[in-house]
Design goal:
The chain is an alpha/beta fold. It folds into 3 domains: 3-130, 2-Layer Sandwich (Gyrase A, domain 2); 135-215 and 392-442, tRNA modification GTPase MnmE domain 2 (Four Helix Bundle (Hemerythrin (Met), subunit A)); 222-382, Rossmann fold (3-Layer(aba) Sandwich). It has 17 helices and 13 strands. Strand 4 and strand 5 form a beta hairpin. The longest helix has 25 residues, at 159-183. The radius of gyration is 29 Å and the shape is flat.
């Protein structure tokens, strides 16, 4: 990566463009204080270069004699800033025009517009955070539930990195001893390397890797969520159920069958799981072109869903139409929901119990037993596993792949020691495992990898 590129002073709006109380224009680099000094006039007449780190100052942004905005200017000096460079943040008014005017003035005075994620990239390249922590920044921004946020915060604070570094040290120590034995077999004390102790240490590393990977499915669900589709015949209460889960009136509810003509999507926090839930049009024999397209779209959503919420009207008997729909869902993760339990029941629930693992009775209109439905959804998605509070959880597919490859290689090394194979073979397997771990942490990386990771960030982060 070109040093001149890294030496540029960069700037961007770090808050969302739009009407708000404040907007922040962030500047980072060796010329950040100089650029700020050209456009900031403080109330006390001092220059930004005179300010101590972590201090806040009131003043105006000016272009010559023209006042652009009244602002608060924050100074964070290297190496104690997020990027480990000098950073100046200009807190201006949050309107689009004010933010854009301040940013354009900063760029005119020597800064370059930052690329997506470039502030976080510099934090990584300058050694403030490792690559796993850098990726956690984006996960925090995208978090849809408290559980996802906590998972990402743990990763940013180095919980995953700390565990991986502990495993890395075990492997590195083993490689060092094995290679010393290979290079200096006649040296006193070196040729008598305790291979059984190395094997025990590697068995610990293997278990730690397996434990971390064992939680990966739950972690990915907590971070990325699942998609669930509410389906059933017309007028069984699908829109009412969506409203009950959302705790607000999102879908139009009428006694007229076929009110929902298009799919409605919302993300709901269910027991810490982000669930993208879709209220679909009722599955019926279409009466016109619009209904035909609506039903086709419903079937498309059902085909791609992680979970099916099949809604039945408990006040009506089971029909052949119901049975036909159930057959199409065979083998899919699904919950049978009997709605309208506040009315006289006619449906044969025992028949549903034979076809579904989970059957929940609710009243969507009166919001009864919605908590039981949420428990069933959580239990089916997490397959009954309780989310561990103390163990490290791996959510990123990149991290899962890296640790999976490392675990396989460590396991191979253990087997090679058990079979008394050449120590060269064992050492090579462990060096390959180290390479996978170093890719996760960013101790070795390619520009293409960085572009892929940081390209997903917004400009200004």
């Amino acid at each position: 990566m070109a040093q001149a590129y890294l030496n540029d002073t960069i700037a961007a709006v770090s808050t969302g463009m739009g009407s708000a109380g404040i907007g922040i224009v962030r500047i980072s680099g060796k010329d950040a204080l100089t650029i700020a000094g050209k456009i900031f006039v403080s109330k006390d007449g001092r220059s930004p270069r005179d300010y101590k780190t972590y201090t806040v100052h009131y003043g105006k942004i000016v272009n010559g004699q023209k006042v652009i905005d009244e602002v608060i200017l924050t100074v964070m000096l290297a190496p104690g800033s997020f990027t480990r460079e000098d950073i100046v943040e200009i807190n201006c008014h949050g309107g689009i025009v004010a933010q854009r005017a301040v940013l354009e003035l900063v760029l005119e005075n020597g800064a370059r517009l930052a690329e997506p994620g470039e502030f976080t990239k510099r934090a990584f390249l300058n050694g403030r955070i490792d690559l796993a922590q850098a990726e956690a920044v984006l996960d925090i921004i995208r978090a849809k539930t408290d559980s996802a946020l906590n998972l990402s915060l743990q990763q940013l604070q180095g919980r995953l990195s700390g565990k991986v570094n502990d495993i890395r040290k075990i492997i590195l120590d083993a490689v060092t001893l094995l290679e010393a034995n290979i290079d200096f077999p006649e040296e006193e004390g070196v040729s008598a390397v305790d291979l059984s102790r190395i094997r025990e240490d590697l068995a610990v590393a293997d278990k730690e890797l397996k434990d971390a990977l064992g939680n990966s499915r739950q972690a990915r669900i907590m971070r990325d969520g699942v998609s669930a589709v509410i389906c059933g015949k017309p007028n069984v209460g699908k829109s009412s159920l969506l409203n009950a889960l959302l705790r607000q009136e999102r879908s139009i509810v009428t006694p007229i069958a076929g009110t929902t003509r298009d799919a409605i999507e919302e993300v709901i926090d269910i027991k810490g799981i982000p669930v993208r839930i879709v209220d679909t049009a009722g599955i019926l024999d279409a009466r016109d072109l619009i209904e035909k397209k609506a039903v086709a779209r419903s079937r498309k959503y059902i085909a791609g869903a992680d979970l099916i919420l099949f809604l039945f009207d408990g006040s009506k008997s089971f029909t052949r139409e119901d049975d036909a729909i159930i057959k199409k869902l065979k083998g899919r993760p699904a919950i049978a929901i009997v709605n309208k339990i506040d009315l006289k029941q006619k449906i044969d629930k025992s028949r549903l119990s034979k076809k579904f693992q989970h059957v929940v009775g609710i009243s969507a209109k009166k919001s009864r037993n919605i908590n039981l439905l949420e428990d069933a959804i959580s239990g089916l998605v997490l397959k009954g596993k309780v989310r561990p509070q103390e163990s490290v959880m791996v959510a990123s597919l990149r991290h899962i792949q890296a640790l999976s490859k490392a675990q396989i290689l460590v396991a191979e090394a253990v087997v090679s020691l058990d079979n008394k194979l050449s120590t060269e073979f064992t050492a090579q397997a462990l060096k390959d495992a180290l390479m996978r771990i170093d890719e996760l942490l960013g101790k070795n990386f390619s520009d293409d990898l960085l572009d892929k990771i940081f390209g997903e960030f917004c400009i200004g982060k």
